[in-house]
Amino acid sequence: MAAVPLAAAQKRKEDKAMADSAANIVELRQYTLRGGQRDTLIRLFERAFVAPQAAARAPVLGTYRDIDDPDRFVWLRGFEGMVERGTALRTFYGGSVWRAHRDAANATMIDSDNVLLLRRRSGSAAALAAPALVTATIHYLGSTAPEAFARFFEDHLAPLLVADGARPVWTLESETGPNSFPPLPVREGEPVLVWFAAWRTRSDLDRFERRWASRSGWRDSASVDLLPALMRKPERIRLVPASA
């Protein structure tokens, strides 16, 4: 009798892996919540919103608690492309599930407009499937050409990160096309490169952060045109899966 549930669970796992690998466009969404409301939103989100978004071809790629902010909920949503994003979001936000639960969801939030619209450069969300911790590191590029910084990251920074114990498993950059669903604002005019890493333990992450904080000279090989991207300290968001 257990074969059917196990088969269904495996099918869901395979469907999610396929969705992760097809997510060329990604929203990194950071919600600022009212005090004590994060667990309330997570329960509602997991119960009511995950399956309908997947059905609309807007799969949820991950839901997280920010370990440094008890009132911050972070989640990722993927799409095959920008046209598909517009279609999927019109389907979901025009549907009965969102209409039935939007007031309850919105009541938990102070702000839901902190959204980076990104395009996959390498890797996929599948690598974040079951870690104890996830980090998202955001490099703000300023006037630096995105492709120039991406090459600097891949050729120079990434090997140093690996040497210090991090492994970038998913790298994304700003999607520069127009917002294909204007009712949902996104942050515009802020070119970024974002890389995700997965961690087995908090000790692994702490060890990396100590090593990286003491590393000297990693900017020395940067050309002058990269300097605007190095003026601002990268933002690192430390996350635990919402299901943990």
Q: What does this protein structure show overall?
A:
It comes from Allosphingosinicella deserti. This is NIPSNAP family protein. InterPro entries: Dimeric_a/b-barrel (IPR011008). It is a single chain. The protein is of the alpha+beta class and 244 residues long. The chain has one domain: Alpha-Beta Plaits. It is 39% helix and 28% strand. The chain has helices spanning 3-21, 38-55, 82-93, 96-106, 146-163, 202-213, 227-230; strands at residues 25-33, 60-66, 72-79, 109-123, 133-140, 168-174, 192-199, 235-241. An eight-stranded antiparallel β-barrel has the order 1-3-2-8-5-7-6-4, surrounded by five helices. Strand 2 (60-66) and strand 3 form a beta hairpin. The two termini are 28 Å apart.
What characteristics describe this protein?
Alpha-Beta Plaits, 244 residues, Dimeric_a/b-barrel, NIPSNAP family protein
* CATH architecture type: 2-Layer Sandwich
Average pLDDT, all residues: 93
Count of the separate structural domains: 1
Most strands sheet: 8 strands, antiparallel, barrel
Radius of gyration (CA) equals 19 Å
Query: Proportion of β residues?
Result: 25-35%
Q: Label the overall shape.
A: globular
How do the SSEs run, as a string of H and E?
A: HEHEEHHEEHEEHHE
Secondary-structure-derived class: alpha+beta
Distance between the termini: 28 Å
And the CATH topology?
A: Alpha-Beta Plaits
* Lateral arrangement of strands in the main beta sheet: 1-3-2-8-5-7-6-4
Protein name: NIPSNAP family protein
InterPro entries: Dimeric_a/b-barrel
